[in-house]
Amino acid sequence: MQTEEIVKQAQEWVRDFFEEEASGHDWWHTYRVVELAKTIAREEKADLFVCELAALLHDMADSKFNETEAKGIQKVADWLDDKQVRKEERDHVLEIISTMSFRGGHNPPMTTIEGKVVQDADRLDAIGALGIARTFAFSGAHGHPIYVPGEQPQEAMSKEEYEKRQSSAVNHFYEKLLLLKEKLNTNYGKEMGEERHLFMVNFLEQFYLEWNGEK
Ligand code: ADP
Ligand code: NI
User: Fold this and answer.
1) What ligand 1 atom has the least distance to the C-alpha of 130?
2) Helix H segments across the chain?
């Protein structure tokens, strides 16, 4: 099968799968990660096919949408085998998405440029204007407030602890979004990250002004 045909079939598979999802992991998150991954891959001279395919499939193995992460990986492996993706590319894509789905504390580092590109693309979609939009959408869906005055920025905590604490959308900036810039791998990803980071910093500044009725 031609690479374009494999990409097209992956798009269809993923789009059908996420049709029902409204948690911020909808098809349009994947769409944006793919577009970002292609942009960064061109700049970083990474393999475009591997980046595009891994970006398309990056959330398909996530434990949120599968019984276990291992079963999620197996599902993607079966799909790649069914499409007869070349072994080298199949293994590379699987390595990237299993590293990205890994949830046991600190993510293991990405070893290839393609992995670094796709991971940057996923992280960039969590910051900037889109990061802000996704954060407020997530908070609203979970019944969390937009802001709690006096609430102190918290160290990153587990999802379970967070759910119990019901802290605000604004707090999520301090526990995650403002830290992501430092985790970007590639030079071009870092450049994009600087801009998106600054946009969030400015947003917060304006947010506090407006919250306090200032100009
Ligand atoms: P990912 O695996 O992409 O980090 P998550 O499910 O953790 O995905 O988050 C999906 C989106 O919701 C991201 O944009 C993330 O920043 C946001 N989000 C995650 N947890 C929270 C939270 N506790 N409060 C507000 N937004 C959140
Ligand atoms: Ni993602």
Assistant:
1) 14
2) 3-18, 27-44, 48-57, 69-82, 87-101, 113-124, 128-141, 159-165, 169-175, 187-211
60-82 average pLDDT score: 91
- Residue 37: which of 50, 21, 28, 27 has the closest Cα? 50
Q: Is the CB of 196 under 6 A from ligand 1?
A: no
Asked if pLDDT for residue 122 goes beyond 80, the answer is yes
Alpha carbons 120 and 112: distance in angstroms, whole number: 12
Q: Could you give the residue ranges of the DSSP H alpha helices within 3-67?
A: 3-18, 27-44, 48-57
Q: Minimum mean pLDDT among 120-124, 144-148, 152-156: which range?
A: 152-156
Class (C level, CATH) for 3-211: mainly alpha
Whole-prediction pTM: 0.91
Q: How far apart are the CA of 71 and the centre of ligand 1, in A? A: 22
| Ligand nearest the Cα atom of residue 154 | 1
Q: Is 176 in the pocket of ligand 1 (CB under 6 A)?
A: yes
Domain chopping of the chain, boundaries: 3-211
